[in-house]
Amino acid sequence: MQDVFDYIERHRDEYIRWLQALCRQPSVAAQNRGMAETAKMVEGLIREIGGHAKRIDTSGYPVVYGEFANDKKKTLSFYNHYDVQPEDPVELWDSPPFAAEIRDGRIYARGVADNKGNLTARLAAVHAYSAVRGGLPLNVKFVIEGEEEIGSLHLREFVDAHRELVQADGCIWEFGYKNADGSLQASFGVKGMCYVELVCRGANTEMHSSHAAVIENPAWRLIWALNTLKTPDERIHIKGFYDKVAALSETDIEVLRQMDYDEESTLEKFGLDSFVLGLSGLPLKEKLIYQPTCTVCGFQSGYTGQGKKTVLPSEARVKLDFRLVPDQDPFEIFRLLRRHLDEHGFADIEAIPYTMTYPARTPLDNALARSVVRTAKQVYGTEPTLKPMSPATGPMYILCQRIGIPAVSVGVGHFASNNHAPNENIAVDDYIQGIKHIAAIIEDFAIQE
Amino acid sequence: MQDVFDYIERHRDEYIRWLQALCRQPSVAAQNRGMAETAKMVEGLIREIGGHAKRIDTSGYPVVYGEFANDKKKTLSFYNHYDVQPEDPVELWDSPPFAAEIRDGRIYARGVADNKGNLTARLAAVHAYSAVRGGLPLNVKFVIEGEEEIGSLHLREFVDAHRELVQADGCIWEFGYKNADGSLQASFGVKGMCYVELVCRGANTEMHSSHAAVIENPAWRLIWALNTLKTPDERIHIKGFYDKVAALSETDIEVLRQMDYDEESTLEKFGLDSFVLGLSGLPLKEKLIYQPTCTVCGFQSGYTGQGKKTVLPSEARVKLDFRLVPDQDPFEIFRLLRRHLDEHGFADIEAIPYTMTYPARTPLDNALARSVVRTAKQVYGTEPTLKPMSPATGPMYILCQRIGIPAVSVGVGHFASNNHAPNENIAVDDYIQGIKHIAAIIEDFAIQE
For position B31, which CATH number holds? Predict the structure, then answer.
């Protein structure tokens, strides 16, 4: 592989330019900003490096589908997305979120880690391998959707309508990180999600807060309702919530025991003294990987500007994100939540479903996993950390497990990449290393049985 | 008085223009918008109608002090303010908040009810009375501050430094309303206030919500902390909170029993089915007038924009307004709140004090009260409703009760004036009637023993 690796090093600046160009094009799905332009740009890049590409319409944003070679025995697919999270709070960024500025060996941009760095690294790997070897040893497919950050609303519809396009012998999933110690993580699953907004309404107008002695306050009602959902012991009190959480096997525990999680670096990075409930070691890792969550992502009511304003709010809204583990069903969780609110005297609180994603896991022993691990040792020089499931979420079940495709996730981020947060970044060297790793996987997976 | 009333009717359009001009000048103290311009405008108006006026500096916004006549036996003072609340949410206004548009007999503007309508009505009354009678039968003083909506932060300093300027035999307080049945309210006190912002901090940055399994969420912590403060039964659980609440005398109950509160109109106006705890009748009025409150005026954490964003917030903030009744002490309440948070495991939550206002009450039987009631019957044709205390707040204690001045509050608002809320308004006819009422009080109070 040294010939391909050398080629990648010589084209280093070009591949960085690809990434910067893509990051400088905003593509915020939640706000419908720059989506068509970005899809077109990605389609153009695939064509430029010799692939067949098309934008395939869905009921939402189009999927960019790309294909390289089509006469080989084996097929490897890549799942990525061209949309990014909103960039606010923009005042906390040290450089503009869409400037893709390089400082101290890192590229800073909204989406550079999630997910544009991985997308261009994979395209660069295909480009380099083809250029050096005159072709690819297996068929390569790219499924690049535009709605991952808003819950992959139409991916199931796409997969069902284009089953032959997504069929593959293995899929490299969209994300991946280095641990604090520099070793690579390989993930074999994702948590599911039930993302909901709760809306509590009071009077038909905001009013002077002197009325609050006798008029109900929707902010208080929402606080009381939330308090019935989860208590400071981190227990979620929705009846039936934990019923389908799969028991852990001895292997699950063993993998968890060997999984790296650098507690000290994590606490230091985030300026914290301890984790929730003072957890550490195996129980901490078990909570991170195998336990579902109920997270307040946003709360808004009344006057939140400068200074004081004495108002009684007319509405209160909370955005809640439940991360689910096998075999929880997001639709069932939503029904249980609705029933919980009804039974606790909060039938008036509206629950608006946003995202419903099933959790997913691939067994650790399969051909693609073996290729990923073997080539990781070759490129990174150390054994990768195996993560049975990522605490993050994605539509892996719809695109992979549901139709029998093994999925493994590796990528160019690091443990402080600040996904979804200000100053999102990746290291330039990790990016180049990631390109080499994908090139090596392409070669290795082609000859694996 | 018919001569003065006729003069007021003839000058109706002029007095409306005064009010519109003042409303078109924004004066948002919380945001330091237009404060100097407004103080100058008010000072100019007093001079234009023949008074002595000066802007007196404080450590905050200046007080505009005005004086008419100074050789009479008796002195009547007026307390008003030239600052207004912020106008947001501006999208809920049917006309621009500073346009002072007249529609269907009402003037709509931020501050028109609170407090610019009362301010110009009182100046208009002085103008009309002086014009018709060639002078005033008593000394008149205006104390017009610029910080009422941000808690009258420097009024105590002003009163202490200018005791002789504020001395009077009676004070007409800043606000007043008509009930839903068209009768006039006269108030004899105000609730106090302890306004606080609570800030709960988590990690040093917002992060991807997949971390929420193991990293503490400041939004959840603030929700749990708030839940310990007040429960759905409306009981406030801060130890010692109710200790200084004065017991009600038989007279207090009797006045309350006679006090008008139109439950049906209030519920209908605000689109509600019931009051808190399903209260009605005397218990409802008792809660409104004699019970302290704890109100969430604003709550902000994490992502509150359009669509979904899966973040773990780094901070959560709530603005809390405690309305206090005699003899609660706002400074003591703040100390009790701090102790409560500490004792319930929330020592890390910062409590920022904004406003500390003492509650105040004037006995119902005094010369000014008799003048107000007698002239109200003359102008409005019906007996006014006596309100032993308003559920609203103001610095009455500092300017009146503390230095022995009886205070009564009447004004030109109505029960649906939307103070502090979108579409704040007063009826043009109420404004003109209010001018007549003040003119009549000036004559009547001058001859009262």
Answer: 3.40.630.10
SS (H, E, C) chain B: CHHHHHHHHHCHHHHHHHHHHHHCCCCEHHHCECHHHHHHHHHHHHHHCCCEEEEECCCCCCEEEEEECCCCCCEEEEEEECCECCCCCHHHCCCCCCCCEEECCEEECCCHHHHHHHHHHHHHHHHHHHHHHCCCCCEEEEEEECCHHHCCCCHHHHHHHCHHHHCCCEEEECCCEECCCCCEEEECEEEEEEEEEEEEECCCCCEEHHHHHCCCCHHHHHHHHHHHHECCCCCECCCCCCCCCCCCCHHHHHHHHHCCCCHHHHHHHHCCCCCHHHCCHHHHHHHHHHCCCCEEEEEEEECCCCCCCCEECCEEEEEEEEEECCCCCHHHHHHHHHHHHHHCCCCCCEEEEEEEECCEECCCCCHHHHHHHHHHHHHHCCCCEEECCEEEECCHHHHCHHHCCCEEECCCEECCCCCCCCCCEEEHHHHHHHHHHHHHHHHHHHHCC
Residue A262 pLDDT grade (very low, low, confident, very high; cuts 50, 70, 90): confident
> Domain count of chain A?
2
Q: Do B421 and B300 belong to one domain?
A: no
CB contact under 8 A, B287 and A214: yes
Same structural domain, B218 and B132: no
| Disruptive mutation site among B319, B396, B414, B425 for chain A (greatest number of A CBs within 10 Å) | B319
Asked if the structure places residue B251 within a domain, the reply is no
User: Residue A33 falls within a domain, yes or no?
Assistant: yes
Domain that holds residue A8: 2-188+362-447
Nearest CA in chain B to A205: B270
Please indicate, yes or no, whether residues B20 and B149 belong to a single structural domain of this protein. Answer: yes
Please answer whether residues B245 and B328 qualify as being in contact, where contact means their C-beta atoms are separated by less than 8 angstroms: yes
Report pLDDT for B70.
81
Q: Is residue B49 part of a domain?
A: yes
Task: List pLDDT tens digits, range A100-152.
Answer: 999 999 999 999 999 999 999 999 999 999 999 999 999 999 999 999 998 89
Residue B449 has pLDDT above 80, yes or no: no
Whether residues A350 and A366 fall in one domain:
no
Whether residue B270 is contained in a domain is answered as no
Contact B204 A270 (CB under 8 A): yes
Q: Are A62 and A55 in contact (CB under 8 A)?
A: yes
Average pLDDT over residues A319-329: 96
* pLDDT tens per residue across span B301-313: 999 998 888 999 9
ipTM more than 0.85? no
Q: Do B212 and B305 belong together in one domain?
A: yes
Q: Are B78 and B142 in contact (CB under 8 A)?
A: yes
Q: Does the beta carbon of A215 lie under 8 angstroms from any beta carbon of chain B?
A: yes
Residue A348: Cβ-neighbour burial (10 angstroms; 0-12, 13-18, 19+): middle
- Chain B residue closest to A310 (CA)? B297
Domain end point (choices B357, B385, B403): B357
Between residues 276 and 335 of chain A, which touch chain B (CB distance below 8 Å)? Answer: 276, 279, 284, 287-288, 291, 293, 295-313, 316-317, 319, 321, 323
Yes or no: say if B408 and B184 are a contact pair by the CB < 8 Å rule.
no
Co-location of A419 and A389 in the same domain: yes
How far apart are the C-alpha atoms of A361 and A187, rounded to whole Å? 9
Same domain for A6 and A34?
A: yes
Domain identity same for A118 and A210: no
Query: Of B357, B376, B392, which residue constitutes the final position of a domain?
Result: B357
Q: Is residue A368's pLDDT more than 80?
A: yes
CATH of the domain at A352: 3.30.70.360
Residue B423 near residue B93 (C-beta atoms within 8 A)? yes
Q: pLDDT tens digit string along B388-416?
A: 888 888 899 999 999 999 999 999 999 88
